[in-house]
Amino acid sequence: SAVGDFLGENEQFNLDVLRHFVCLQNFEGLMLVQAMRNFLSSFRLPGEAQKIDRIMERFAIRFCEQNPSIFDHSDTCYTLCFATIMLNTSLYNPSVKERMSFDDFLNITNSLNVSRDLIIQIYNSIREEPFKFPKDHQIDNHLNYNSSRLFRMAEKQGWLHKQGSNHWTWNQRWFVLSNKCLYYFEFPNSREPKGIIPLEGICVRMVGYKDVDSFSSSKKPHTFELYSPNSEIVKAHKTNSEGRLIEGGGQHTAYRMAAPGHEEMHSWISALQKKYK
């Protein structure tokens, strides 16, 4: 439940993590209730209604982005999701004495611009099978699954040298471009990324060999950098040795990477440019 509590917090850092966490999910072509099952199996929902509200609102936005023809607005999807969670609680929480009937569910959703067939489908699906939330010992397995799926969905991946925050060192890292984020790992088989760079509002450009900081311990050819045209800071998320996100970590004016060759550098620049066009 700690993951759900963290994702549901109303602090900007938590909201950013929630947005990028949801962007890792693929709901394209799924029925709403199946998409909810997939999503809610990845962590335990928090108990606080406001936290659930924020999490499901972000889920609804993502679902509608990938399935634009189902709902006229993400608010409709969000409201129906919240009603579906209420239905699941009513049918399976032993402390609830009066179970929600189909007519009850229809009544609380009748103001929504959705078909009766969809309401029937959702009610029957939840009545036949409740949502399954992971137990604490299942979370690690799910994280492994998400990491492997991230690699399978990658637009590009490979070794790059990343300039250290002190500008004196370059560390070899395995980079993965996926879901509008750039992840870097210590090794290709590492379970957790060492850092995540969201690409929203970020641009990329080639850095000439002579432009690399003169105080770097070793200049690198084939260098490019990520930068923000509207801000002095490129916000990113870093993790500690246990794979936990470090709040406020990874804020630089630019992130510089060096490719092993000229063609590979241009391949990375081209792939990154596609993410913000």
From TrEMBL:
<dbReference type="Pfam" id="PF01369">
    <property type="entry name" value="Sec7"/>
</dbReference>
<feature type="domain" description="SEC7">
    <location>
        <begin position="1"/>
        <end position="129"/>
    </location>
</feature>
<dbReference type="InterPro" id="IPR011993">
    <property type="entry name" value="PH-like_dom_sf"/>
</dbReference>
<dbReference type="GO" id="GO:0005085">
    <property type="term" value="F:guanyl-nucleotide exchange factor activity"/>
</dbReference>
<dbReference type="InterPro" id="IPR001849">
    <property type="entry name" value="PH_domain"/>
</dbReference>
<dbReference type="GO" id="GO:0032012">
    <property type="term" value="P:regulation of ARF protein signal transduction"/>
</dbReference>
<feature type="domain" description="PH">
    <location>
        <begin position="153"/>
        <end position="277"/>
    </location>
</feature>
<dbReference type="InterPro" id="IPR023394">
    <property type="entry name" value="Sec7_C_sf"/>
</dbReference>
<dbReference type="Pfam" id="PF00169">
    <property type="entry name" value="PH"/>
</dbReference>
<dbReference type="InterPro" id="IPR035999">
    <property type="entry name" value="Sec7_dom_sf"/>
</dbReference>
<protein>
    <submittedName>
        <fullName>Uncharacterized protein</fullName>
    </submittedName>
</protein>
<dbReference type="InterPro" id="IPR000904">
    <property type="entry name" value="Sec7_dom"/>
</dbReference>
